[in-house]
Specification:
alpha+beta, Jelly Rolls
């Protein structure tokens, strides 16, 4: 039996017009400090974190050999630090398409009114014709997960929650779920040959999907995500290793600054299951010592090990972050695994289930092939020779893509 958990995983100078990054921290959780006070209290932590982040040798353009395989040096840096930043991975044309699709989806999201009852954690969800809710809302600058038993209790410490301004809305959009069915540009991104080559290098050529979500951190409003490590399945396994729970791609539509970004503890993916509460206690606050921000420019893609200790502070900066997450697992860590979903239902990820969910990779590759005709498509080995079954058409939009995320696999 394994526990299933659902995850709602460069610098501003590269984007003209973006302001300097200042994030959160201040007084007691529950809203004692204003957003401005919170930001000022974080300045020294940000300065130190940025310096450490830029000293790491784990960023640059993607480098593939003549055989299409990822540079061993990049792979070594990923395994050393637990993350790597691929700079300028998404070219301007595709980035513009992603932003345009995102703008449309955000406009279509009906923000809950102030009279809408959220759950006890201060969240609300809305459907838009799909089986699973596409939109997740939270209170501005809140922490819906920290200090609760949600997600198997893997967010043990509540983050600081500064007071939003009096003009702040009652709800703020925090996540989109099911990116690939919401935006055609995201489906095409899912078939990106460079990204899939990285997935193969890390997880093997028979890698399998996890899920796809969007994280939205609005300036002065974006909620925090308390410190945690993803995954609950393989921590105690005899064959546990530093890649047991897979990784997430984090595609940045706008710059990821120290004020709005995810922060990570480099190398923590090799440390096993950490005592997060102890880490916070030893650091004297939620500003965990040694952590660094995931600094990235618009169009950069971060590959982040899911076992890394990571979290994000409430966004009291002036910078918007929108991150498209795409996760992948090693096949051997998923095949015939029995999982318990958050609703209590149990399911087994057998060959049939894995193949059906993995078919979205093949569908995405064909959607990309049709749109970017001058680009050599990636060959997904598990479904090689079955490409005709996964041609991107209006029919397969309904028969294969719609509600695909009901088959998401969690370890």
């Amino acid at each position: 039996m394994i526990d299933q958990t659902e995850d709602p995983g460069l610098n501003s100078e590269r984007e003209s017009g973006m302001t300097e990054d200042i994030a959160v921290f201040g007084h007691s959780a529950g809203g004692g400090a204003s957003a401005t006070e919170h930001a000022l209290a974080m300045e020294e932590y940000i300065t130190v974190g940025k310096k450490k982040a830029r000293a790491l040798n784990n960023r640059g353009p993607i480098k593939l050999g003549d055989n299409g395989q990822l540079s061993p040096q990049i792979l070594d840096e990923y395994w050393e630090h637990g993350f790597y930043v691929f700079e300028n991975m998404i070219l301007e044309t595709e980035l513009a398409e992603l932003r345009a699709d995102m703008e449309r989806v955000l406009k279509e999201a009906s923000v809950p009114g102030s009279d809408v009852d959220g759950n006890k954690n201060g969240e609300a969800e809305l459907h838009n014709g799909f089986a699973k809710p596409s939109y997740r809302f939270a209170r501005p600058l809140s922490d819906p997960f920290g200090g609760t038993t949600r997600n198997k209790g893997r967010h043990p410490v509540k983050m600081e929650t500064p007071m939003p301004s009096t003009e702040a809305p009652h709800w703020v959009l925090q996540n989109l779920n099911g990116n690939l069915q919401l935006m055609d540009s995201c489906l095409r991104l899912y078939g990106h040959p460079g990204l899939l080559s990285v997935a193969e290098a890390i997880n093997g050529s028979d890698f399998v999907p996890y899920n796809e979500v969007t994280f939205i951190k609005k300036p002065g409003l974006g909620p925090s995500v308390a410190w945690h490590q993803d995954g609950t399945t393989h921590w105690g396994s005899q064959d546990w290793d530093q890649g047991a729970h897979g990784f997430n791609f984090m595609v940045q539509l706008y710059p990821s600054t120290a004020g709005n970004s995810v922060w990570v503890l480099p190398g923590s993916h090799k440390m096993g299951k950490l005592d997060i509460a102890k880490k916070v206690l030893e650091s004297g606050s939620e500003r965990i010592e040694g952590a660094v921000p995931l600094l990235a420019g618009a169009g950069d893609v971060i590959v982040n090990n899911r076992q890394m200790l990571h979290g994000s502070f409430a966004n009291t900066s002036n910078d918007l972050r929108i991150t498209l997450n795409e996760g992948f697992f090693p096949r051997e860590r998923v095949l015939n695994v029995k999982a318990t979903r958050l609703n209590g239902e149990e399911e087994v990820y057998d060959e049939e289930r894995i193949k059906k969910r993995s078919g979205i990779i093949a569908l995405a590759i064909d959607a990309r092939r049709q749109h970017f005709s001058g680009e050599a498509p990636y060959v997904y080995k598990p479904l090689e020779g079955e490409e005709d079954k996964y041609r991107w058409t209006n029919e397969t939009r309904e028969s294969i893509l719609k509600n695909y995320n009901l088959l998401d696999m969690y370890i």
